[in-house]
Amino acid sequence: MSESSFVLVVGAGLGGLVAATDLHAAGVSVRVWEARGRVGGRCRSPAVGPDEVRLDLGAAWHWAEHRRVRALAERLGLERVRQHEPGVAVQEWARDEPVEHFEWPDAPPPSWRLVEGTQALHERLAATLPDAALRRRHRLRSLRRTGASVQATAQTPNGPQTTSVDAVVLAVPPRLAGHTLQFEPALPDALASALRGTTTWMSPSAKAAVTYARPFWREQGLAGRVRSAAGPVHDWHDATPPAGPTPGPHTPPDPAPILQRPHWEGRLHVAAAETATEHPGYLDGAIEAGRRAARALA
């Protein structure tokens, strides 16, 4: 694309910001529209408690095979910490049955968190973009292809806004795009069906954080891991900073290949985490999807 090209990235989650920063680095003019007033997408890491520890209320962990996350964290200067696992775990099978204690494996598949929370990945990436590139509270409503460009309309704090762009990267959950956006001309049935039918990873889940003055459970030989089949919380994890399987029908996304290809003669790309060929739905998948879109456009 020429130096005057203008690409619109929809969504300031990890896939969107990776696509935007890669395009910017390649000399492509880029804008990011984000519906919320913050960056991070499904990653949110508010400061919790008197010590303002940043705890993840969205995506939190990555594993050894998630090499893209590790490389990006290192490049952005973010510290990783190994998830605390050793000790005794607690299992609750039913409300009217006593809880069971069992030894949690000393060496489960290792997982890591980011000390500053996963939202910090997004904040650091966003900081590398020009000030005018990121527009918060811009909720995309429709896309209309007009010859060599695409007309994108968003609801903004100042009312509807329509902008002509050379290409669009949809870095929002495919199901959200398929059900809430208007496309003109209408998308082919196979693409529209794939968007609407793609599982949004972890969408049935919610997270909460509780803080204590110290990790007292470790003093009692407990791992801080609690699993309950009775609820209301299924899994508890120890998220203490360095200084101090889900039931039901929900399954990981199985991305349709049509979502990994450009459309509208190369002017429409989907870069949601759920479209990745490796680790779809995870942070690593989001990075892969964002880079795929950026490579195709840059």
Textual characterization of the structure:
The chain is α/β, with parallel strands linked by helices and 298 residues long. It has a domain at 6-43 and 118-203 and 250-297: FAD/NAD(P)-binding domain (3-Layer(bba) Sandwich), CATH 3.50.50. 21% of the residues lie in helices and 27% in strands. The chain contains seven helices and 18 strands. The protein has helices spanning 14-25, 67-75, 119-126, 174-180, 189-197, 216-219, 283-297, and strands at residues 6-10, 29-34, 47-48, 53-54, 62-63, 80-82, 87-92, 100-104, 111-114, 134-136, 139-146, 149-156, 159-165, 167-170, 182-184, 222-228, 235-236, 268-270. A five-stranded parallel sheet has the order 10-2-1-14-18, covered by helices on one side. A four-stranded mixed sheet has the order 8-7-16-17. The model has no long low-confidence stretch (mean pLDDT 90).
Short description:
The protein is of the alpha/beta class and 298 residues long. It is 21% helix and 27% strand. Helix 1 (14-25) packs parallel to helix 7 (283-297).
